[in-house]
Amino acid sequence: MTDDVQLSIGLPNFGPWPDGDWRGFVDVARAAEDAGIDRVVLVDHVVMGPNTDKYVWGRFPTPPEAPWSEPLTLLAGMAAVTSRIRLATGILVAPLRGATLLAKTAATLDQISGGRLELGVGTGWQREEYDAAGLDWDLRGRLLTDTIAACKALWTQTPAAFASETVNFSDTYLMPKPVQPGGVPLWIGGTLNKRNLARIVESGDGWIPIMGLSTEDMARDVVTIRQALADAGRDPAALRVQGPIPMAKGDDGKFDLARTMDNAAEVVAAGATALQLPIQAFCPGPKEAPAFFAEARRLFDAALGR
Hints:
Layout: E1 6-10, H1 22-34, E2 39-42, H2 71-81, E3 86-93, H3 99-113, E4 117-122, H4 127-132, H5 140-156, E5 160-163, E6 168-172, E7 186-189, H6 194-203, E8 206-208, H7 215-231, E9 240-244, H8 257-261, H9 264-269, E10 274-278, H10 289-303
Parallel strand pairs: 1-2, 1-10, 2-3, 3-4, 4-7, 7-8, 8-9, 9-10
Antiparallel strand pairs: 5-6
Helix pairs in contact: 1-2, 1-10, 2-3, 3-5, 5-6
């Protein structure tokens, strides 16, 4: 069944694509909603260090001095001009914000959006961000685990209590709660190692595979996650997966939207529930976004036989 599979569009809240017009960038979400896009996703860096050459997943998309807007702030602006589309991060470097502040910010954003927020979270790859925040880079995995578990406690308990190596509180009230039952959905990003699998089973609602993972390997890992959820007494069918659609080029050597969308069905078969496309690969800027969204929606529905 593909009726509940979502079309998810990555929006570049960084670099030259918005052309410096951040107020106009908010309207891109409204254009996406008008075209029937299901979900938009923003990415995160709080600050940048000079060593972008250490990015191991290819060429980093911007120099360190390029603008990079804070995603939760932009999503709040998008929430104000939309009513249906899901608003997501993929990923947010959760440990940089601290558990209580992140829980409060996310709960507030979920409230003003009417329950449309989804947090894709991870540790990030850049040591300089942790250094600038006064956090121990070597503890980043523990910080992520504790941060998301503490957020879950704050969203679901009144009063809340949580105790771990890095986050501790008791008799603590966070109000208002998120609109969504159980709190804001948490999509755990990254390679499916032992620690990330444990995070998904204990606190997660979804998984965002690491960049560059093949569709075949994603399918294998989805099976692993679903089995681990079942073993823990959770419903494996409830797992959400953000699967990238393999990019295809046309005869001119440029990325071709129609040929790319021909790959959508194989990603669904591999277990993806939200099929992800980066808008900047096909669309030069916000002015062209409405036409891109309409064509992407048409091709997506056709590829899935809708």
